[in-house]
């Protein structure tokens, strides 16, 4: 047996028995995993052991450093402005990244936003951006730097050289049903952000029925873990736990969400979307030193929207990423879903809204599935509104009836019409700062 084979077997035994892996072993393993030199069966065995036993804090920090070191980090040293980013764990109608990135750029920050695609009940930021005709999100490092020089912000996929071990492990976790492991989630997210060469990071960790994680205690644990990991890598980081017990904004569906993002950058978007965009812009403006305090940051963010500077940055970013200027795709058919009874509108399982869009062709069950960017749902009433029987609840944008019946069934299950308004948590539930992360 070769020395490498024996070392791999030793690593697997340590984690199988609940031990903590040392940094040197982790770096050795992850470098080879990123190059495709570790058998998938061995990696799956290791990931399963991590799933069952978890990881101690120093061990997880070493694992995250090893993920970053498995590839190359972006080099943003040529930019004098603060480099910042934001990550969301995802939810129904969560389009915050689309208006936030250009707003931050218009406020004087550089935003190298590496994002992901949708799978399951939530839509991916890259899929939404690619609804814009011509836009490219698969960019090499030189192209990323070119877009940043032109627009100050880029929203793109993980480049080939950024944390390649993460790309290998994430794809495997998805195939073997090991995605929902808090240490693996945290290290996957933070490793990509650290590799962006950023100064400051804010995390949007969602709770509620439309979120990836629904249990508030697990959400807090994930948020604190990510803050600790990023801070350990010398990236100033805070997190907000936000409520995903109802769709965010009115639009759910790729092109529809891009249009709503444009409205938000004109100051005409739904108030809940505007609240989150402003909150994260303020957090990053203060932590990066662009604004002296929250009051100054709020004033700057609002001025950039009112002046049209943020909207102009968005269009500049789209153009730099290949946008042709053609109109967004539109579905040929629209069905109006009306209220069966009178009552106050609420939501039960919000995941059903995302799954309804998937039924229409606007989501994927497997990574290879194609997406129809034009379909989706636009809510005409918000949670807490009183409606009468027959009132319009939402417009369902579909293509020739594909998946419409199943989508309507899911939407009917998602909504509730109550006699009285249920107590609704605030959109911004908690804020987690580095000092409170332990």
Task: Report a brief summary of the structure.
The chain has 438 residues and is of the alpha/beta class. Helices cover 45% and strands 15% of the residues. It has 3 domains: 3-54, no CATH class; 84-325 and 429-436, Nucleoside phosphorylase/phosphoribosyltransferase catalytic domain (Pyrimidine Nucleoside Phosphorylase, Chain A, domain 2, 3-Layer(aba) Sandwich), CATH 3.40.1030.10; 333-418, Pyrimidine nucleoside phosphorylase-like, C-terminal domain (Aldehyde Oxidoreductase, domain 3), CATH 3.90.1170.
Which helices and strands, and how do they pair?
Elements: H1 3-16, H2 23-34, H3 40-53, H4 57-69, E1 84-88, H5 97-106, E2 111-114, H6 125-129, H7 141-151, E3 153-156, H8 164-175, H9 182-194, E4 200-207, H10 216-232, E5 236-243, E6 251-252, H11 254-265, H12 271-287, H13 294-306, H14 309-320, E7 333-338, E8 343-347, H15 351-362, E9 376-379, E10 386-387, E11 392-398, H16 404-414, E12 415-418, E13 428-432
Helix pairs in contact: 1-3, 2-4, 2-8, 4-9, 5-12, 5-14, 7-14, 9-10, 12-13, 15-16
Give an account of the 3D structure.
This protein is α/β, with parallel strands linked by helices and 438 residues long. The protein has helices spanning 3-16, 23-34, 40-53, 57-69, 97-106, 125-129, 141-151, 164-175, 182-194, 216-232, 254-265, 271-287, 294-306, 309-320, 351-362, 404-414, and strands spanning 84-88, 111-114, 153-156, 200-207, 236-243, 251-252, 333-338, 343-347, 376-379, 386-387, 392-398, 415-418, 428-432. It folds into three domains: 3-54, no CATH class; 84-325 and 429-436, 3-Layer(aba) Sandwich (Pyrimidine Nucleoside Phosphorylase, Chain A, domain 2), CATH 3.40.1030.10; 333-418, Aldehyde Oxidoreductase, domain 3, CATH 3.90.1170.30. Helix content is 45%, strand content 15%. Helix 12 (271-287) packs across helix 13. The longest helix has 17 residues, at 216-232.
């Amino acid at each position: 047996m070769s020395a490498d084979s024996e070392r791999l077997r030793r690593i697997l035994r340590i984690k199988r028995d609940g031990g903590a892996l040392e940094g040197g072993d982790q770096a050795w393993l992850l470098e080879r995993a990123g190059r495709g030199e570790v058998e998938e069966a061995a990696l799956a065995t290791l990931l399963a052991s991590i799933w069952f036993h978890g990881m101690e804090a120093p061990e997880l920090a070493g694992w995250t450093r090893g993920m970053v070191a498995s590839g190359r980090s972006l080099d943003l040293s040529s930019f004098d402005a603060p480099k910042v980013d934001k990550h969301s764990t995802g939810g129904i109608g969560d389009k915050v990244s689309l208006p936030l990135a250009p707003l931050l750029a218009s406020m004087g920050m550089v935003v190298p936003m590496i994002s992901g695609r949708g799978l399951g009940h939530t839509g991916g930021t890259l899929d939404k951006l690619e609804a814009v005709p011509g836009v490219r999100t698969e960019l090499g490092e030189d192209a990323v730097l070119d877009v940043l020089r032109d627009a100050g912000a880029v929203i793109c996929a993980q480049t080939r050289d950024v944390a390649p071990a993460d790309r290998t492990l994430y794809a495997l976790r998805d195939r073997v049903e090991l995605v929902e492991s808090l240490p693996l989630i945290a290290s996957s997210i933070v490793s990509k952000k650290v590799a962006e060469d950023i100064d400051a990071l804010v995390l949007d960790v969602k709770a509620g029925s439309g979120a990836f994680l629904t249990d508030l205690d697990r959400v807090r644990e994930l948020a604190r873990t990510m803050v600790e990991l990023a801070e350990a890598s010398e990236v100033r980081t805070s997190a907000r736990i936000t409520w995903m017990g109802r769709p965010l904004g009115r639009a759910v569906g790729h092109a529809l969400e891009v249009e709503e993002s444009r409205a938000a950058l004109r100051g005409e978007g739904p108030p809940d979307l505007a609240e989150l965009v402003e909150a994260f812009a303020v957090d990053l403006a203060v932590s990066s030193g662009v604004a002296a305090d929250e009051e100054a940051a709020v004033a700057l963010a609002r001025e950039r929207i009112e002046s049209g500077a943020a909207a102009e940055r968005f269009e500049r970013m789209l153009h730099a990423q290949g946008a042709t200027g053609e109109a967004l795709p539109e579905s040929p058919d629209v069905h109006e879903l009306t209220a069966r009874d009178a009552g106050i509108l609420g939501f039960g399982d919000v995941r059903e809204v995302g799954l309804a869009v998937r039924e229409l062709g606007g989501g994927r069950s497997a990574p290879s599935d194609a997406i129809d960017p034009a379909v989706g749902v636009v809510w005409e009433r918000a949670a807490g509104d009183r409606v009468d029987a027959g009132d319009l609840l939402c417009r369902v944008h579909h293509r020739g009836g594909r998946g419409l019946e199943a989508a309507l069934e899911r939407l009917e299950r998602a909504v509730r019409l109550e006699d009285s308004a249920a107590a609704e948590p605030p959109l911004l539930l908690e804020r987690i700062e580095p000092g409170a992360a332990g």
